[in-house]
Input
Amino acid sequence: CPMKKELENTMPDNVAFTGYKTGIELAQIYASADLFTFPSSFETFGNVVLEAAASGIPTVGVAMGGVMNIIDHGKTGLLARPKDIESFTACVEQCIHNDILRLRMGSTAREYAKEKSWDSVFDTLMTLFENQINPALKDVKRIRDEIPITTPRRA
Output
């Protein structure tokens, strides 16, 4: 991060810049958090938001991209207006000052994340495909049944 030194010098002592983490170490960081903030306006999916949800942590994110499919505003976290620092800050403050809301959203986020296993994602995808294919197959069968079948004559 090009601004890491400057940011470290201006942040309070309880802010840590951990760098890239994986596995147990990442799980421990999530487990120790009360709130996950994700101010990105450019994330296409937002896997980190789903990871936070799986850890029972609500997220304050920006109402753009894939994050909007993960955060259910007021249920699994809060969505701020894009490129609006005051909106984002107000959402964070609401979570900091309202323990009941934050804990309820974290619990709901955890339940949501449990539904997002690869098996459930695959099942949903298959259902979507079947819903698109089945009407088309019915049309093919109907058209096929309407075509008169003739047997070629032998000479």
Observations:
- DSSP finds seven helices and three strands in the chain.
- The longest strand covers residues 59-62.
- The mean pLDDT is 86.
- The two ends are 82 Å apart (CA to CA).
